[in-house]
Amino acid sequence: MNNVKKIAMFAAILIVLGVIGSVITFNFKEPTSVTQAEEIDKTDITAIEILSNNERVEIIPSNEQTIKVELSGKSNDKKDKFQVEEKGNTLSIETESRDFKLFDFDFFTKSLTLTVALPEKVYESLKVEIDNGSLEAEDLNITDINAATENGRIALKNIGADTVQVNSSNGKIELDHVKGEITGKTNNGKISLVTESLDRALELDTDNGAINIQTEKEPTNAIFDVRVDNGSIKIFGNSNWDTVVGDGDNIIKLTTNNGSIRVEK
C-alpha cells in the first residue's frame, strides 16, 4: 500500500510539473512590438496621475502645446495598453492588461516604456504608482510630487518643486538637483542626492543601503539628525560633526539600518 501511495504521489508531482512547464512554454512565445499613442489637447491640466503595472515610466518636458502619452516596446500580451481619463484639471493615465492568467510570466518577456511628455509650465501635482517598473522624470516644474514603486528605481533630475515624496519597497532612489522639501524612503536600496544647497527640510531613510549626499554648499541653518545601526557616518569628512549649524531651522534626517552615510562637498 505504501508503494502504491508513493507511486501515486510521484505521478501527481509529474503531472503538476508538466502543467507548469506547459504554461511557461506557452507564455514564452516570441514577444511582439507594442505601440500606442494619444494626444491630449487641454491647456488647463494642472495635475497628473499615473498608475503603471510593469512598465518603465518616463516623464519629460515638451515644447508642444499638447500632452503626449506613448506606450512602446515589446510584449507577448496583445492586451497591453493604457487608458487616459480627464477629471477636471487632473489627467489620469493607467496601464493595464485585462487577460486573467493563472500563472503570469510576463515580466520575463515584457519590455515596455510609458512616456509622458508634458508641455513646459508649472503643474500643481504629480502622483505616480508603479508595481514593477522604474520611474525617470527630468526637467519639470511641479509643486507637489508623490511617487512610489513596489520594485523599481526612482530617478528625478532637474526638478523644481515645493515638496517631494518618493518611496520604493525594493529599488534605489536617485535625486539630482531636485528642489524643495524631500522625503525619500526605500526598504532595500541606495539613496543618492546631488544638490546645490542643504538649507531645507530633508528626510532620507533606507533599511538596507547607503545614503550619499553631494552638495555644492555646506548648510548654514540646519540640524543633522543622522543614525546608523550597522555602518559608518561621515559628514564633510568628519566622524564627529556639528549637530546644529546656525539657528537649526532645517532638519536633515538621515537613517539607515545597514549601510554607510556620507555627506560631502
UniProtKB/TrEMBL annotation:
InterPro entries according to UniProt: Toastrack_DUF4097 (IPR025164)
Keyword Transmembrane: yes
DUF4097 domain mapped to chain residues: 45-179
Chain ranges passing through the membrane: 7-28
Keyword tags: Membrane, Transmembrane, Transmembrane helix
Protein's name in the database: DUF4097 domain-containing protein
Organism of this sequence: Virgibacillus indicus
Lineage: Bacteria, Bacillati, Bacillota, Bacilli, Bacillales
